[in-house]
Amino acid sequence: MRNTDTIVILTGAGISAESGLQTFRAEDGLWCGHKVEEVATPEGFARNPQKVQQFYNMRRAQLQDVSPNAAHQAIAGLAGRWRGEIVLITQNVDDLHQRAMEGVTPKGNYACYPMHGSLKRVRCTASEEVSEWDSDLSAEHTCLCCNLRGTLRPDIVWFGEMPYFLEEIGAALDRATLFVSIGTSGSVYPAAGFVQQLRLEKRAHLVELNLEPSAGSQYFHERHYGKATEIVPVFFGGM
Ligand code: NAD
Questions:
Q1: In degrees rounded to 5, what are phi and psi of residue 109?
Q2: Higher-confidence residue: 63 or 36?
Q3: Is there a contact between 70 and 233 (Cβ–Cβ < 8 Å)?
Q4: Ligand 1: which of 45, 51, 188, 227 to mutate, most ligand atoms within 8 Å of CB?
Q5: Can you tell me the mean pLDDT for 74-91?
Q6: Cβ of 190: how many Cβ atoms within 10 Å?
Q7: Within a 10 A sphere around the Cβ of 165, how many other Cβ atoms?
């Protein structure tokens, strides 16, 4: 690797697990007691908005009790010394990468694309306007854009919806020299397909850092399994 190369990093729920945020598919994970189609689809929201708001209110409130861990900090540290480009694509809707970057001045070009939205934002379903949001959300809230009640929803990309930043992500994958996938089960597309695409194109070195082999583990050139707080700092430490 030259210090001017483009590193693309993809993260999933596993990188935040040791901060205290549950992953989705673990036995005691977020889906335990919650059906995906009820809390993570537009149809589920239309059927029972209160239930969906409660699910995301609970997750938004959890953010106050957690902090970035050594894996988030290792990526932020790399951004502080890497002269090339770092593109961080996260499927996570927490704000731990953003918080890890506070006080860090990127040495080269750095961009973070939260492709599945953010718990800290809400979207008005009437105007599509997005606003910052820190507290609980309910059908009683009035949006600031059209002054309507009950139009606000979490700014989360649900199943069946288009992820954010796909154009920017596609362009970054085209430039990638190194692609590192961290803490994702590789079961949700399009993110799960990034490694397959890069493997076909044969340009980037592909690395998986995860607790266990992901669904697409066979596509990676290099694999390291263990806790994110242990293996991520070691992997990026030498760069
Ligand atoms: P996941 O729960 O499917 O997988 C987490 C991965 O992290 C697993 O492979 C696990 O082995 C690994 N892991 C667990 N603890 C770890 C640790 N300490 N260190 C390293 N790895 C660890 O989560 P995912 O892959 O992120 O799921 C894909 C994405 O789908 C989610 O990030 C989410 O954005 C999206 N999604 C969103 C919703 C929603 O609420 N709208 C619903 C379902 C999925």
A1: -85, 130
A2: 63
A3: yes
A4: 188
A5: 97
A6: 13
A7: 17
| CB of 71 closer than 6 angstroms to any ligand 1 atom | no
- Residue among 34, 72, 97, 116 flagged as catalytic: 116
Our answer on whether the CB atom of 91 is closer than 6 Å to any ligand 1 atom is yes
Collapsing DSSP to helix, strand or coil, 132 comes out as strand
- The chain-wide mean pLDDT, for the chain, equals 95
Write out pLDDT tens, residues 171-205: 999 999 999 999 999 999 999 999 999 999 988 99
Q: Give the Cα separation of 115 and 100 in Å (integer).
A: 18
Is residue 184 in contact with ligand 1, taking CB distance under 6 Å?
A: yes
Question: What separation in angstroms does the CA of 76 have from each of 79, 82, 112, 130, 191?
Answer: 5, 10, 11, 26, 21
Q: Output the pLDDT for position 32.
A: 66
* Residue 112 tokens, joined: 């973070």
Residue identifier of the C-alpha nearest atom 8 of ligand 1: 185
